[in-house]
Amino acid sequence: MASNYFSNFEGIYTNFHQSAVIIAGCSVVIALVLSLFLILQHLRSYTNPAEQKWVVSVIFMVPVYATESIISLWNPRSSLACDILRNCYEAFALYSFGRYLIACLGGEQRVVELLENESGQCLGKSLLEGSDENHSRRQRPFCNIFLHPSTMGKDLLSIEKFGLVQYMILKTVCAFLALLLELFGVYGDGEFKWYYGYPYIAVVLNFSQMWALYCLVQFYNVTHERLEPIKPLAKFISFKAIVFATWWQGVGIALLCSFGVLPKEGKVQNGLQDFLICIEMAIAAVAHIFVFSAKPYYHFLPTSGNVQVRKEKKKTSMKIDEGDKEKVAVVEEATAQVESPRTSIKESVQDIVVEGGQRPSYYEEEEEELSLFDRN
């Protein structure tokens, strides 16, 4: 009876595969159009490279996920290769989101100062409450990540960076390890059996991902008040929904297959995961339009000199009566307008890819004029 059930389910999958590809394809088109439109907006208003290079990296996760998933759904044979590419970019996107938060706080040096001030305030309060507790907090810096993260100071930044980097490295290594095991026929995608590599890799990635998420959450808890202008909670939730929800979704589908709720046929498991991701990426693209909007950067004036100064001089003549004589006086009015710089898409892409988010070269031409303007 079970075999008949699975054969019928397989037949249903075969019959609805084409419809699933069409529905998923429409969702992918929506995701690509909205995401690329948002990316182009950031590239055209590339006024804050320190932040926007990471924003673009995070937004680009949606086109990557959507493209890889529709290809895998359309051609199940490419499922493993697409999954590897998707996992590699997922790790980079998580790192990019962490760097984006640091950039919004003013860079690593500003973050260190912020964390040290926060640590000093917390330790000062505990000193008033009891010197023994204050001493114990200083003696157990690693335990404080679980108990008192606000007292860690700059160590919290180091742990947060380590949490993101370790996940990025492990995610990439495990992706290629899965490919190697698959070539030898011992990977067993979705099979929770001791002689397959899938369960071991899943456990390692699960702990690595949870640690990275925990470090990010603790860093957010300490700095969320300073991040309030960028509405960090909405960004945090939207990003977590893509990275971590899709991961647990895949694990959940694998468990359902291992328990016999769903057929253990690999293309059924992978196809369902890819179909759901395509639908979810369209929703994520809509959310990104509001969460990672480029509007705050339209009139952004960087404090580091990345502005354009345009001086205008106007001359007007006035007639002045002095008794019987009439004189003409010339009044000269000088004004200086400070404008947020605009870049072409080519310059913005080159800045992100080649120069790592530095400002375009023509900004340097304005520095001397700007400094003279400041002195005056």
Automatic annotation (TrEMBL):
Entry membrane topology: Multi-pass membrane protein
Principal location: membrane
Subcellular location: Membrane
Transmembrane intervals: 20-40, 164-186, 198-220, 241-262, 274-294
Keyword Membrane (UniProt): yes
Annotated Gene Ontology cellular component terms: membrane
Keywords for the protein's UniProt record, in alphabetical order: Membrane, Transmembrane, Transmembrane helix
A Pfam entry, by short name: Solute_trans_a
Record bears the keyword Disulfide bond: no
InterPro entries from the UniProt entry: Ostalpha/TMEM184C
Name the record gives this protein: Protein LAZ1-like protein 2 isoform X1
